[in-house]
Design brief:
Length: about 325
């Protein structure tokens, strides 16, 4: 029990910033407070990127929606693989409530684990150039955005700067240094994708592809980390209007992309600020994605997390 209730423990500014991505931050938590193992705080911001550039205008609640979706999927996939989530409330600094997660610190594997159920993006480019994706030959005559006969595991390397490089399974085995582990990672990735794609299909949302990051815990057990099955790590498309033969609109970012294209921006940094109607429309799409996929109001997430201080007090009684 804390000696002083609501003391401003773990204020964000006091924590060591370990990494800052385009749209989120990762902080170290101290090992000196009785924790059983090293822990991190991951905080999702409201920043949004299109064409790899971050816009100066935030989308209110975007970080909370992504965090809430990650937690939703962590809670529904624990029978497939353990995950790094420890808490969305206990130990999260007040200013990060709703957008912050306390997670187990892992030894991350040096590969990005992409699963594709539809042929789009760099997978479509690779298929057009070679008839294969990640070294996996595909039937001739596939159209852009078409559903694949079965989900494909198409790993990539983690590039520090610039774009991740597609690799085949054998290269992933070399990088990870353990074939059996890599086979488990592939099988697990496909199971996670398949579970999520079936669920979202029932909600009128196509999960075209997604990316997982795995790590090992102190016992060498495989753990899924990072964010899982969020719109930032996945391509979500509205099922309504889905039509192979061309690119599909993004469920969440399409207003921004449409506006950005019409604005005349050349898609090189710096990204332009966004007008209020694009911000409002995009926020509504993130909230709609959460509500369609989880079946609960987004406010329920806010009540569970941003009201956590009160919940702790009531729970302690
Ligand atoms: C880890 N990232 C990506 C970069 C971010 C996140 N559980 C973990 N243990 C150790 N390392 C990581 C994780 C996770 N998840 C995640 N890099 C390392 C990243 C920048 C900002 F918030």
């Amino acid at each position: 029990m804390p000696l002083v209730a609501s003391a401003h423990v773990n204020a964000l500014a006091d924590l060591p910033l370990l990494a800052s991505g385009k749209v989120r931050e990762m902080y170290a938590l101290s090992d000196s407070d009785g924790a059983a193992e090293p822990r991190l705080l991951m905080v999702a911001s409201d920043r949004i990127s299109t064409y790899d550039a971050v816009h100066p205008t935030p989308i209110p609640d975007k970080g909370k929606v992504l965090t809430a979706l990650s937690v939703f999927w962590f809670e529904r996939t624990g029978h497939i693989v353990a995950n790094h989530l420890l808490s969305a409330t206990d130990g999260v600094p007040e200013e990060a409530l709703g957008r912050g997660l306390i997670v187990r610190r892992l030894r991350m594997l040096p590969v990005e684990c992409v699963v594709r159920g539809y042929i789009t993006g760099s997978g479509w480019s690779d298929y057009q150039a070679s008839g294969a994706v990640s070294g996996i030959p595909l039937p001739a005559g596939l159209r852009e955005s078409e559903r694949l006969p079965e989900p494909l595991f198409t790993p990539s390397t983690k590039a520090d700067a610039g774009h991740d490089e597609a690799i085949d399974f054998e290269r992933a085995v070399e990088l990870v240094g353990d074939r059996e582990l890599m086979e488990l990672v592939r099988q697990t990735s496909i199971e996670l994708y398949s579970l999520a794609a079936e669920r979202t299909r029932e909600c009128g949302v196509i999960l075209a592809d997604t990316k997982f990051e795995f790590g090992l815990d102190g016992d060498g057990q495989l753990i899924v980390g990072d964010e899982v099955l969020t719109p930032d790590s996945s391509r979500y498309w509205p099922a309504d209007g889905f039509e192979p033969g061309h690119g599909q609109p993004s469920f969440d970012k399409q207003y921004v992309r449409d506006w950005a294209s019409a604005s005349g921006w050349d898609k090189r940094p710096p990204a332009p600020s966004l007008p209020p109607d694009v911000v409002t429309g995009t926020r509504a799409r993130y909230v709609e994605a959460y509500e369609r996929i989880t079946g609960e109001p987004f406010d329920a997430w806010l009540a569970r997390t941003t009201a956590a201080a009160g919940a702790d007090v009531r729970g302690a009684a």
